[in-house]
Design brief:
11 strands; alpha/beta; 302 residues; Rossmann fold; Epimerase; 3-stranded mixed β-sheet; globular; NAD(P)-bd_dom_sf
Amino acid sequence: MTQTVLILGASGRFGRHAATAFDAAGWVVRRFDRRTGDLAAAARGAQVIVNAWNPPYPDWARQVPVLTQQVIGAARQSGATVMIPGNVYMFGEQTPPPWGAGTPHAARNPMGRIRIEMEAAYASAGLRTIVLRAGDFIDTQASGNWFDLVLTKRLAKGVFSYPGDPAIPHAWAYLPDMARAAVQLVGMRADLPAFADIPFPGYTLTGHEMAAALGRVTRGEVQLRRMSMLPLRLAAPVWPLGRRLLEMSYLWRRPHWLDGTRFDDLLPEFRATPVETALASALPAGLVKPQVYPDQAVAAGG
């Protein structure tokens, strides 16, 4: 039987990859346009709603509660399962890793509290909900995230800019892998708890490890340079986005990773994309050099 998924935020980072992954798995994919669409009508007949809406950070306090109630209402009317790409904001700066399904949501900062309240709303609504929780995204195109906007912005000049302590581990998620996992988890939704919190292990990398991996991908020398937060601090009083970025900057100072035990139990056959392959797909084509292996013949003229 053909199944239908409604993607909210289908032009965004996770939504774009979710649409591709569900389509590849044979689902009928509906991409919702919030400017012109009727959410309740669009959700009718859908078995799953992917809530990949992500308003700009300065608008979270105003928009997230409203959007959450809209999605809950549409899911309640249609009977759809809601899939949410979760993040790590709700754990808070003082919570030690690893972060898993049983880790307390102890964040005290505004953005962390917004996410705590959002997830609590789904949990109390009585809807079947899956939160696939992940770290920072690695996308296959420049999409304005930390990876392309900051870390690799000057990689063409051999510079890898890192906004925190490069010796501590940081959680990353390759979006095609995360979307592929979302499809598989939705396929077993009847066997999951009504509210399923599933950390996506992704990659755990220090800044030094990522710089080394980028060096292997580009086959060039990559120099890691610490990014100063001073410009962000100076701009924060007059730049709303800067204030929110500064608020969450502890994630670059705090060692953290996600506990993949539950994920591995549910999807024991899942195989993550090798990190070098993921990084290569996230970089401009001109920066990626073909790899030469000693046991492979090299084409003439190569």
